[in-house]
Amino acid sequence: MAAAEPKPPAGAAAAAARRLARGCWSAFWDYETPKVIVVKNRQLGVVYRVVQLLILLYFVWYVFIVQKSYQDRETGPESSVITKVKGITSSEHKVWDVEEYVKPPEGGSAFSIITRIEVTPSQAQGTCPESVRVTNATCDSDEDCVAGQLDMLGNGVRTGRCVPYYHGAFKTCEVSGWCPVEDGASVSQFLGKMAPNFTILIKNSIHYPKFRFSKGNIENRKDNYLKQCTFDEVSHLYCPIFRLGFIVEQAGENFTELALKGGVIGVIINWDCDLDLSASNCNPKYSFRRLDPKHVPASSGYNFRFAKYYKINGSTTRTLIKAYGIRIDVIVHGQAGKFSLIPTIINVATALTSIGVGSFLCDWILLTFMNKNKVYSHKKFDKMVDIPDRGAEPGPWASEPSQQDSTLTDPRGLAQL
Questions:
Q1: Is position 304 annotated in a ligand binding site?
Q2: Cα–chain-centroid distance for residue 95?
Q3: 339 marked as binding residue
Q4: Using an 8 Å Cβ cutoff, are 342 and 83 in contact?
Q5: Domain 78-130+181-339: which topology?
Q6: Which of 116, 197, 244, 379 is the most exposed place for a label (fewest CB within 10 A)?
Q7: pLDDT tens digits, residue range 379-409?
Q8: Is 303 annotated as a binding residue?
Q9: Can you give the three-state secondary structure of the chain, one letter per residue?
Q10: Domain map (residue ranges) of the chain
């Protein structure tokens, strides 16, 4: 029977634990610093300095000057928009004022100016031929029309009769609804003759709550300044009264074509404010562009319908109006920035850290492509060995003398890299 192995005394284990604790405590207060090796190689030195210079220029010019990354920023200001349109125009049959051609009349950030209408007068509840634009509306006999059928894109409930159309030799199914239908009796009227001279007041105020900064786009004057001015980017920046023709022209559109088919124009107000400067340097910048897909025939243009109701001999009748117009969407965006210590420290630290990319690149070139890459590797990387306790015989962990020791006496060394 094998003899039991002797247990180490308790005092030896406690002593080993104390030595370990003292070693950890002593190592805690050690200072470590990276090893620096100077490589005498002009080509590598040029690469190293060029990379450092490019990184430095990037941070100084782009990050700090262009992007102003030393600032705390707020995007998307709180904004309010009030609009007002003025002007009169006429069509073939009447004179139109603001109350009739501006929809909706509240004066918000999105409104429409009617430039052409298709009027279907004197519609009343009754029966009439369906529009030929409705799917399966054409017919040859009553059998082609199903009584009670309701087409969601049609103008009423089918009666089951096939009747002659308003004009032409063909027939369509009869429907019960508002008659006559739009296609059969509508009359077109153009309102855009004087529309380019309409004036639009766009009153805008913004607020950046983080910086407690507010400003508006109207000159703070007590005289009749707004009654005498129109917008000019140089001389009347704070007179936000725009001619409709000017807006369409700045958006790159032909006014007559736009008035006939309708369209959506965006008035973009940009408030980019550097609050390290005075408030007078925070000014609105206006731009204009068309928002609806002009080159997509299926979805370009803009129109909507509305009706005006009245009674004749106790019967309700209406005038249906299909309106084409120019819709104006006022869009406000921007950002404000002000110096802050935290983003400045973060970006400076990032810049200093990024400069080390040059060292990484040069190390890679040395270790991969240079003739003396092994010499550089021995100089840069120390290879540690496990040293046994004193008095003990060399164990399996003892290593042979490092190859680094042999390179220390190499007279050709790194100076030949």
A1: yes
A2: 42
A3: no
A4: no
A5: atp-gated p2x4 ion channel fold (2.60.490)
A6: 197
A7: 666 555 545 555 444 444 444 444 444 444 4
A8: yes
A9: CCCCCCCCCHHHHHHHHHHHHHHHHHHHCCCCCCCCCCCCCHHHHHHHHHHHHHHHHHHHHHHHHHCCCCEEEEECCEEEEEEEEECCEECCCCEECHHHHEECCCCCCEEEEEEEEEEEEEEEEEEEECCCCCCCCEECCHHHCCCCCECCCCCEEEEEEEEECCCCCCEEEEEEEEECCHHHHCEEEECCCCHHHCEEEEEEEEEECCCCEEEECCCCCCCCHHHCCCCECCCECCCCEEEHHHHHHHCCCCHHHHHHHCEEEEEEEEEEEECCCCHHHCCCEEEEEECCCCCCCCCCCCEEEEEEEEEECCEEEEEEEEEEEEEEEEEEEEEEEEECHHHHHHHHHHHHHHCCHHHHHHHHHHHHCCCCHHHHHHHHCCCCCCCCCCCCCCCCCCCCCCHHHHHHCCCCCHHHC
A10: 78-130+181-339
C-beta of residue 352 within 8 angstroms of C-beta of residue 132: no
59 annotated as ligand-binding: no
Residue 2: what pLDDT?
52
Q: Can you say whether the dihedral through the CA atoms of 103, 104, 107, 112 is positive or negative?
A: negative
pLDDT for 182 beyond 70: yes
Contact (CB, 8 A) for 128 and 180: yes
Q: What is the pTM of this model?
A: 0.74
Please check if 322 is assigned to a binding site: yes
Q: How many CB atoms lie within 10 A of CB 307?
A: 11
Flag whether 42 is marked binding.
Answer: no
Cα separation, 164 vs 229, in Å, equals 58
Torsion over CA: 127, 316, 121, 190 (sign): negative
Is 212 annotated for ligand binding?
Answer: no
What span, in angstroms and rounded, lies between the C-alpha atoms of 303 and 66?
43
- Was 7 annotated as part of a binding site? no
